[in-house]
Design a protein that fits this description.
This protein has about 325 residues and is of the alpha/beta class. The chain has 10 helices and 14 strands. A 10-stranded mixed β-sheet has the order 5-4-1-8-9-10-11-12-13-14, with helices on both faces. Helix 3 packs parallel to helix 4 and helix 6 crosses helix 8.
Length: about 325
């Protein structure tokens, strides 16, 4: 069984993190205690965790060979498949406070107008068996869309992978807003989605704060996503933990107590932990425990640092079973 995880980040960035000694003061001059710059974007972060954990990954993204993002990935030993675009990638700035409060300033990114077919072909080709390794087990579509791509770009990418690989590759999506809604409306089958409480509420309605307080309500709402041709839902709830909804049932896990230093990349790390547990053949409960443990480990690190699985403790995470699923849709192979 292939263990390769191909990540697709249509709008990658150079993530600059500035750490402050106190609270952020608007309009004031403040000195940073530390600053870092890392190649970033949701899919890129997943690949970073996979590499740190000794896993097999390829990060697919737009960008020129000498762009700082591509150079940063090469320096960190992360294999890439890049679509040259003749323009610099964006820079995002994150400001973190000692309490763990995070403020993000994200640029829009360079335009990819007219390049969707090129990107789709690159994604499908990278997911196939190549001289550098086996075919992918997972393709992860993650993050926002850059200017110039249509709202249905995620659906186009999913369709390209399905056309090339059928059911031979599993597809995970971590996105939000209009592109994610358009994907759900397209009817394309997705094996796994990873929303947070706000992103879930955007799609199915309800109150994000209620989902963070009431895991049964969260699981019921997540089931509405499964009824839209989604195999499984990994709902990350920050300090409240996470909920997993699959064909076999619903599960909840509370987050461990940590001193949060930065939430940048915590959700991405949770997704990476889940996928690494899945390719290792672990049960849904074990996958959820690993997802929560990896997300918590990321939040305890400074800036946009990501953890390796060796630095997590999934055995310390308690997973409990919620109500069994009542889906009317045909059963999916468990994701």
């Amino acid at each position: 069984m292939s263990r390769r995880i191909v990540t697709v980040t249509p709008n990658p960035s150079l993530d600059r993190t500035i750490e402050l000694a106190g609270e952020l003061q608007r309009g004031a001059v403040q000195r940073a205690t530390r600053s870092t710059a890392e190649p970033g974007g949701k899919g890129v972060n997943v690949s970073r965790v996979v590499v740190a954990s000794g896993g097999d990954t390829v990060a697919v993204l737009p960008g020129d060979e000498l762009d700082p993002v591509l150079l940063g990935l090469a320096t960190r030993g992360i294999p890439t498949a890049a679509l040259p675009i003749g323009a610099p990638l964006r820079s995002n700035v994150t400001v973190t406070e000692p309490t763990g409060t995070t403020t993000k300033l994200n640029e829009p990114g360079p335009s990819l107008a007219g390049r969707l077919d090129d990107l789709a072909a690159l994604v499908a080709e990278t997911a196939a068996a190549t001289a550098t390794g086996p075919a992918a087990r997972w393709v992860v579509l993650a993050g926002s869309l850059p200017p110039g791509l249509p709202d249905d770009a995620l659906a186009v990418l999913v369709r390209a992978v399905r056309k090339r690989h059928g059911d031979g590759v599993r597809i995970a999506v971590d996105s939000s807003g209009v592109p994610f809604t358009a994907l759900l409306q397209s009817g394309e089958r997705i094996d796994l989605v990873k929303p947070n409480a706000e992103e879930l509420a955007e799609v199915v309605g309800g109150d994000p704060e209620t989902y963070e307080r009431d895991v049964d309500a969260a699981a019921t709402a997540a089931q509405r996503l499964r009824d839209r041709n989604v195999g499984a839902v990994l709902l990350t709830l920050g300090s409240a933990g996470a909920v997993l909804v699959t064909d076999t049932g619903s599960y909840a896990a509370a987050a461990p107590r940590i001193v949060a230093r930065s939430t940048v990349g915590a959700g991405d790390s949770s997704l990476a932990g889940y996928l690494l547990a899945e390719v290792a053949g672990q049960s849904p409960e074990q996958r959820l425990a690993q997802a929560v443990a990896t997300g918590a480990a990321a939040a305890a690190l400074p800036g946009s640092d990501v953890p390796a699985l060796d630095h997590t403790d999934p055995a310390a995470i308690t997973v409990r079973t919620l109500h069994p699923q009542q889906s009317q849709q045909p059963a999916h192979e468990p994701a």
